[in-house]
Description:
With about 350 residues, the protein is an alpha/beta fold.
Amino acid sequence: MKVGGKQYRTVWMEDSSVFFIEQNLLPFEFRIQQSLNYRESCQAIRSMQVRGAGAIGALAGFTMAQAFLEAENIADPGLAAKAREEIEATRPTARNLFHAVEKVWEAGLISATYALSAALALADKDSEDCKKIGEYGNSLIRDGFRIETHCNAGWLAFVDYGSALSPVYLAHSKGKNIFVYVDETRPRSQGARLTAWELHEEGIPHTIIPDNAGAWLMFGGKVDMMICGADRIAANGDTANKIGTFEKALSAKAAGIPFYIAAPLSTVDLNCKTGKDILIEERSEDELLYAEGPDEEGIIRKIRTASPGSGAYNPAFDVTPAELISGIITEKGIVRASGEGIKEALRADEGYETLKLNIL
Ligand code: MRU
């Protein structure tokens, strides 16, 4: 995607350094950060400087490659395994992170150069997959559609294009007249900060709505479809996504509005038979108790907005049962949210089983 007329990916690697768009500063400041080693890259994932399933997947792959390169440089054979543990402990829910680490790990057992090639190939694949998701998803969007989305599953959440927003970008570029309702997505406000910024940059008509307005708008006949991203999809189609997604899916079902999930197949986890097996990240209570934004000098400040005597519980994701999902838009087509649908998509993805061979 372009920012200020220049083409960017959210995360990329040059030599042994990783570069990324610092998402915690957006939309107030656009800054590229450099991470010199796997420890700094782990911190970037942990602190959500890079967030969103595909983006942290690509970064995790690069981080694993950085560890293999360092291990080779300082001749420390135990370093890569230690780094793998550290990377896998950064954030638990997005499947893409583990998918990338597994692939780069296998390649790194041959050599650090293979690890690097694998990481670069995975990032390229993430971008290509999201582009295809856009093409399939666009077929669902009719001229005049008003689309609601939750959190940020735009290009910032991937290497490029995005999942839920990729069809929206394509529909807009094809001249369809569309409008997007952006859920603010408390507590970190990925909708109000990141999705709104992306849509503004692309000149797509949109408005931010309170998280709790979805049902009201849907029953008021203001929403034609909802598209959300995914952080992990279980073998039966149950889908983990940003907290609040489940409620939106319930509202959409009750209002008779199609509710789609858009995600690359790297988000599917066959080891999770159902959504009950998906580990849900719990984040710091500070995300609820404080709000942040720039002061008059542009310095980002945190202020307490909740009653000082109270604590908070902050689950970062929820699981939407498959039966509430109208379909899953993947890079291999739109499939039913069911065991059969998932299998069908994986069967169609020749590269899924052979990705390692392709890289090597
Ligand atoms: O906690 P985040 O911001 O990393 O959450 C992930 C997400 O951005 C969302 O859940 C998104 O809708 C799916 S990831 C493309």
